[in-house]
Amino acid sequence: MHEVIACDGLRRTYSGPSGTVVAVDSVSLGVQAGEILALVGPSGAGKTTLLGIIGGIEEPDSGQVFLAGRNLVRLGAAERLTIRRRFIGFVFQAAGLVPLLNARENVALALELLGARYQDAQESALKALEQVGLGDRTEHRPDELSGGEQQRVALARAMVKSPTVLLADEPTGQLDSETGLAMFTLLRKMAASGTGVIMATHDEALVEGADRVLGLVDGRIIPMQGR
User: What separation in angstroms does the CA of 221 have from each of 1, 23, 111, 121, 194?
Assistant: First the structure.
């Protein structure tokens, strides 16, 4: 196995009403191909901010993020966007689907933004939706899908481009236990194909199923007892 993403000395602060808030403080971590890493910690611990930095959505005050042989922190916004679209998949608590597009179109969009031919993107989208058990819901728009179905469309959208890294922020936060377990099974399938998965979660079932667990408190990585 090899490391697919590595972070070193990440720090991110914000200005708040009572002064400077340290959201991420001196965080260093790496994830191997095929590994599922769980980040756990209380609300406000910095998990979402950390995922945003790792995914190139937010810029850190200092530190480095290495992905696909590039240091994301040193890239311009356009270059970061290109790397993000090609190598990183996202699944958040809110599915974030385009309301006017059906499930197939939402998934295909991920490939079309990479320059894929329309027909190829549509065919790959159908296959990805079948993989997540939505082969019969491909023409439904988000408002015609349940919360669990929307999350599976979001996962199919991430899966379809075979990302190097998948970032999941509370992916089962709005799901019942059965649907959450199905979601984790799909995450495990992605990891088996070589994707490195980093998920922030409060879901004990996901934590137990992860390959490695790191705690995050006040923006800092802390050792997890028994892990």
Answer: 23, 12, 35, 39, 25
Angle at CA of residue 226, ends 34 and 39, nearest 5°: 45
Distances (CA, A) of 87 to 76, 103, 118: 16, 22, 20
Q: How far, CA to CA in Å, does 200 sit from each of 44, 50, 71, 119?
A: 12, 9, 23, 35
**190 burial level (CB within 10 Å; 0-12, 13-18, 19+):** buried
pLDDT one-digit tens code per residue, 115-163: 999 999 999 999 999 988 899 999 999 999 998 899 899 999 999 999 9
Residues 9 and 35: beta-carbon distance below 8 Å: no
Rounded to an integer, what is the distance from CA 27 to the centroid of its chain? 18
Question: Token match 């916004």: residue?
Answer: 77
Instruction: Tell me the pTM.
Output: 0.91
Q: CA-CA distance, 101 to 65, in Å (whole number)?
A: 33
Q: What values do phi and psi take at 70, rounded to 5?
A: -120, 150
H or E element: which one contains 210?
Answer: none
pLDDT of residue 1: 67
The token pair that represents 10 in the structure block: 């990440």
Structural domains of the chain, with CATH: 3-97+158-222 (3.40.50.300)
DSSP 15-32: EETTEEEEEEEEEEEEEE
